[in-house]
Write the structure tokens for this entry.
Amino acid sequence: MHRVINNFLYSKKYAPYIFVLPFLISFSLFFIYPIISTIIMSFQKVYIGSVTFIGLDNYKRLISESFFNAIRTNILYTVLTISYLIPIPILIAVALNSKLLVGRNAFRAVLFLPSLISIIVSGVAFRLLFGTGEFGFVNSLLQKIGVRPINWLLEYWPGMFIMVSLACWRWSGVNIVYFLSGLQSIPKELYESADIDGANSINKFLYITLPLLKPIIIYVLTISIYGGFAMFGESFVYWNETMPGDIGLTIVRFIYQEAIQRNDLGYGSSIGIVLLTIVFGLNIMQLKFFGIFKKEQ
Amino acid sequence: MNSYIKKGLLFLFFVLLGIIALFPIYYLLISSFRPSEKMFRSGIVLFVKLEELTLKNYRYLLTDSGRIYFYWYRNSILITAIYTTGALFLTSFVGYGLAVYNFKGRNLILTFVLFIMMIPLEILMLPLYRLLITMKIINTYQGVVLPFIVSPLGIFFFRQYATGIQKDYIDAGRIDGCTEYGIFFKIIAPLMKPAYSAMAILLSMRSWNDFIWPLIVLRTNKMFTIPIGLAGLLSPYGNNYDLLLSGAILATIPVILVFIFNQKYFVSGITIGGIKG
Amino acid sequence: MKKKITLGVVLLIVCLVTTPLFAGGAKETKPAGGVTKLNMWVFNALHAKFYQDRLESWNKENPNRKIDLSIEEYPNVEMHNKLTLSLQSGVGAPDLVDININFFSNYLKGDIQLVELNRVVDPVKDKFVQSRFEIYSLGGKVYGLPTHVGATVVYYNKEIFDKAGVDFNKIKTWNDFIEAGKKVQAATGVPMTSFEVIDQRPFWPMIVQRGGDYLDKDGNVVLDSEINIKTLQAMFDMMHTHKIAIPMPGGATHREEFWPFMNKGGQACLIMPMWYMSRFLSYMPDLKGKIYVRAMPIWEPGNKRSVGIGGTGTSVTKQSKNVNLAVDFLAYAKLTRESNIKLWTILRFDPPRWDVWDAPELLAPDPYFGNESVFKVLLEVKDEIVSPNNKLLSAAAQDLVRSQVMYKVLVEKSQTPAEALKKAAEELRKRK
């Protein structure tokens, strides 16, 4: 018996499978099983103590205004956050990397700080700042310069604005650190030889910095798309009660609302399956464009 | 002289950015020292009058509110600790396996890992929730921790790190008569110490601030984590801002402290993951 | 390092094994020294105060059946989500729970997880406003006990009307209301009123008072009825043609943005149910003595002058290990004469038991509300108070009105009243 155990412990044949076992268990229990189960539930009507197959009804119901609003909001939110969260942090990182800046590490720390704070806590702060009516902080500033107070939480674009600002405020610091470490890994000689060729700083940025930052830009892009489509916290902290006319309704929020608030697990599952398909599609597209998976293997 | 002006301007620019970054936190901080009734009668102001400042909200949070806040704090700390310890162990184990062995199905598994990394797991919350019911771990720490403990990000990260470790160490271990697992525990794990620190910070931050999943799993007030408890104070039927604001500030302090003392690991933690991608 | 890791693993295992010990402490029911532990969820801090008071007198009167009631407060939507999840999963639900009428119909689907309360209701049923039981019933079985009638009234800010030289006592119809509003607006620059745009008041009472509703008596969708369309159009005109009403700051009467607005005299009157008196008292201290309560104006002769809107049905869940005790306590707290008087004195709720309506406590003048006897208003319209139909689709219907119809018609103006109501009605019919 002892020898069997010893053989097993020393065997290079079994070892890799033992090593990956935790992943395989977790993968099948908490990923494969739920996906299959979601697919099944999406064809059912699920109440306490009664489950009935209703064919494609849940999917037919999906063709509704709210669902398209949710997808639109997700896409807009993702595009807007990315169009801020990539270029601006790159520029800030370049400035932060400058030898001329005094107190670099302190500034990096300060800029990083917002990302450490829970979405609920920072959301509460933003909710107070962007209070509707004339009592909110931003509105009282606007009034001083003669602008009508804005109903931040009651209109679509202002609502989108405060969701995007919250995300940008929280994540800029992280992206700055990403880009900063990318900048620091670019060999100094490249810049030195460019100097000899008489290149100005804009050219150096365009022809050396940007191309060499590409892998990091792709990485940040990937996690931003992921974050954009998984967004829930911003929506929840601003509109935890009712939400006027679907402003702030994202796909994950829609799942939560239909499945949990309105007690319809089947319908919620069908939304989940569609979201899964969208994200899967986006990933395949990325794989085609950038080939990051290929490079990895 | 020119460079002094440049220096000054650059410095000013970053001071401005710093103010933007810190302003909401400052705002929360001063609001937490104001009586909450004031906030609703006269709206919200930027600079509080000194005589208006009060510790009432904090006193209420820590004494009068049935000490529920201490439960939330304890739950947050325990869940973060359990999750981080478990995830570090499991993901480094798997990541190492994927890095050093060449075996059938390795690429497939690696693809799965990357694939899950890209999927918002929120999609799966409904069946996961039903699974937890069957496993009878609703409203428990296990329920919050288990489904996500084998973090694909962690696996990916440790695999990247372990790939960079020289094979010689492993061969030497085999010659010394270590088992395959002994090599991992005795030789490789100590070598990966920087990776553990970086990942520990990353994972514990995530767990500390995690929101939607604990929101679904945890049922009773005494089991809530801080974000869930605080979100619960955003109630339309009762004015809980006194608890909410002071609670938010107290929840933020440990995170900031951890960050200040471990800045180095924070930065390396997020960059190692980034650069390799 | 190895030690650290093994330590970690051991710690992990210990934690995983022992967490059930920490977990879910809510469900132990140890009758220690004859005291039974019960727990209750409420979504309104004010209600907790009421139950605390009722508990004390229960424990005095029933020394053999003492209760140790722990009341937990959760935010409205969150509490109901948790209740849904707990009832579905069979664990974690409380013994007693306050359920908002907005959600009540959700819990009457499938296998009903609430305890039938006819045992305690039937003996006293005839002393109550019947419709307040009906809204918490299915097939003749009562599953929740009412907390108030919720009679809708108009709260006038006398200071503003005096400034404008308008007498609100003369407002009898909604046309009078519009004319008075124009004068108030012209004289003071203050809008007559504001409408909820992320909630459903005063739309709901305004349609029900003239015979409209979201669902009919059999639960069919009638949300897009002629009456409803006409009423919503009238509300739209008040806002955009006559310019006497505005969208409510914050969007609803429960938002923190609205309280300071109303408190500072931002609008001349508010159309809300009687239970909103408690919010005046807690959140609008500056209006003390200026607020006068009157019955609703009407659209056309024959309309009702009040509508019971909102409500909290208190229920016992089947997960309770002490169902009988919980039901008895609930009956004591909600059905007795004394408790109904307390509903008024503690919460300023109009009690559903009408045989207390002429009790001296209820008729006492109230210094906040113009030093008048507010309850006289209720007695005046006593026979006119109708309630909306609360059928299976009600939660979904209210949800659609709150989140879509009001906003799209009144604020965004992207849909006409007819379009928005038809669309919502179709969406509802799909859910059947």
Residues 64-276 of chain B form a domain with the MetI-like fold fold (CATH 1.10.3720.10). Chain B touches chain C at residues 39-43, 78, 81-82, 85-86, 88-89, 129, 133, 136, 138-142, 185-186, 189-190, 193, 216, 219-223, 231-241 (CB under 8 Å). DSSP finds 15 helices and no strands in chain B. Residues 57 and 202 of chain B are 32 Å apart (CA to CA).
